[in-house]
Design brief:
- The chain has helices at residues 9-14, 31-40, 46-62, 100-113, 125-133, 163-171, 242-252, 271-285, 301-305, 314-318, 323-334, 341-356, 388-395, 424-431, 452-460; strands spanning 4-7, 26-30, 71-72, 79-83, 118-121, 137-139, 156-161, 183-186, 191-194, 202-207, 214-219, 224-225, 260-264, 293-298, 360-364, 376-380, 403-408, 438-442.
- The chain is of the alpha/beta class and 461 residues long.
Length: 461
Amino acid sequence: MVKYYVLDTNVLLHSPNAIFAFSEHRVIIPEVVLEELDRFKSEATDRGANSRHISRIIDKLRTQGNLLEGVPLNAQGGILQVETNHLGTQIPQYWDRTKADNRILQICKGLADNRCHTVLVSRDTNMRVKAAILSIQAEDFRNEKVAEVDEQYTGRAEVYTSSDVINAFHCDDINTIDPERLYEYDEKSHMLLKAQLEVNQFLHIRSTDNDRHTALGRFDGQKVVHLRYRSRNPFGVLPRNIGQIFMQECLMMSPEEAPLVILKGMAGTAKTFYSLAVGLHKYMDCRPREYHHLLICRPHIPMDEDIGFLPGSESEKISPYMRGIRDNLFTLLSGHTMTDNKDIEQVEDTVQLLFDKNIIQTEALAYQRGRSLQRYWMILDEMQNSTPRQAKGVITRPGLGTKIILIGDPAQIDHPHLDSRTNGLVYASEKMRGSKLCFQVTLQPDECERSPLAAEAAMRL
């Protein structure tokens, strides 16, 4: 049965190619959606770029027939139609008919009244609620959704084997483990089943004979190998838990081995702190110097939509949103025991010097499009507030010798049209799963090291 999918503006602004995702069904674009797209097309943002992109797509399809009657979308029989009718369709009297959302709902109601199987597709939760008031089926755009948080890829696993295998693994750094000898616990059957491993997955290996007999390793796609950088202390930082050991391993690898690292986890698990520590170690302590630049970007909704919001240069506008970076740098350069005011001021001056000398550069995420970055250590912080399109845009920027670190907490999202299944961080994580060029680590709640209170609050609140 052919369905009529009515697309809200926010779907097209989020994913311009959404009109091609409905196979043999009919895609309806209300004329008010075209008007809303026109309002955004002049913006120098991702939203503006998406508006221009979908406008070009519709204009190209226009040459294939009459948009009011419908033009073919694909070989499966899909149709695109611009809808201008149903102006007389009744909706609640107290709803403002000049409002774009209500006009879209009016079209949905008109199509449904004409016995068309109508589905509203919108990323706006309130829009979907209002559709339910009119007894109209409504859905979020699911094409870019990934699994629920508990089912998302973590980049690590707990596996089991015999003590003999672990002993042999510990005997020599060149020893490896055959993945056929590893098992994982299945919660449904309460049995140990053969482990299903992903390339570059980190492993906490436990003995089936002795629960305290363990080892750490990484599956390289063929065998389980030792961690090479476990004993390192980049910039004086010592890993405090298994998650940080895994995190240090992939951060310390060369950009040829691990050009993309994705770090997920709750606040206080030292994701940004560790990324800065290793970056400064690679820049200051390693000779020849591995990276020419340390670049930090953070998506921020008001800034990405309008960088003229604050006075001053680009770096001055970004500065208020980089205070968390400065806090991490201060801790990294000072430690926790310093109390003398003179020493504190000296460390603050050193942190400022890192920015003044452009050792650490900060830029807006929205302005990375079109760049080609050579030998950059690039930290993309708070990426749970980025869109899948933004994530794709920055991951495709690096040239030779550049390492990109995506950092974020999928549970802390400020973007009005993103959630834990649709943001750029988890989208990149799931799509890059199994890539030989991508390493991932999700830090667990019990690996929070900021403070006992931070750990307790993150667990309880």
